[in-house]
Design goal:
Elements: E1 6-8, E2 17-19, H1 20-36, E3 48-58, E4 67-77, E5 84-95, E6 97-105, E7 113-119, E8 136-142, E9 149-156, E10 158-159, H2 163-166
Parallel strand pairs: 3-9
Antiparallel strand pairs: 1-2, 3-6, 4-5, 4-7, 7-8, 8-10
């Protein structure tokens, strides 16, 4: 048995006893691991501060004081087979007319910028219901991005659609879904 002094931590289990010698040899290894464990990785890129000015108009007889839900998205996120459109960055509530917003665009989260809005014409907080279909929407992809100052104009005229209805848009002409039917194994005759 060792005659080393011990430090008793709170609790009474045998696992709560730690020798000072063990603490002295473990602490430097732990600190070195924390210091050098992430040394090979670069820190993530800082977010881009974006000032967005958006002009929003609505077709039809929409109350100018109606609530407009505005969302900004990464146009694309992920890589390879895991690449997908429309990852939400930030959401805002505004009214028809011109509004300005500021947000931080997380560079490591994706690429491109899409601005989507819909007007809550009936004030129920939902973008259309099965019985009320008067909410209107629009979307614009910002072509000159990344940029710290962005302007967009939206004409809310398409009823009851989300951002995925507009973006990424229809398949290019002539493109076909290239997923061959899997081969079925031949079963022996009975």
């Amino acid at each position: 048995m060792s005659s080393q002094p011990t430090v008793k931590a709170r609790g009474s289990s045998i696992f709560s006893l730690l020798t000072i010698r063990a603490a002295r040899t473990t602490a430097p290894v732990l600190i070195a691991g924390l210091c050098f464990g992430c040394a090979g990785e670069e820190p993530p890129a800082p977010p881009i501060p974006v000032d967005l000015t958006v002009e929003i108009a609505a077709a039809g007889d929409i109350d100018p004081a109606a609530s407009v839900r505005l969302s900004v998205y990464h146009a694309w996120t992920g890589t390879g087979d895991l690449r997908y459109p429309l990852e939400i960055v930030e959401g805002f509530e505004t009214v028809l007319g011109t509004s300005s917003f500021s947000f931080d665009y997380p560079v490591e989260g994706g690429e491109g910028l899409v601005v989507y809005a819909w007007v809550d014409a009936d004030g129920d907080g939902a973008n259309c219901t099965p019985t009320v279909r008067g909410d209107l929407a629009d979307l614009v992809e910002i072509e000159d991005f990344p940029s710290e100052t962005v302007s967009a104009s939206l004409l809310l005229e398409t009823p009851c659609v989300g951002p995925d209805w507009f973006f990424p848009g229809p398949e290019p002409a002539g493109a076909e879904f290239a997923s061959p039917e899997p081969a079925r194994p031949e079963l022996p005759a009975p």
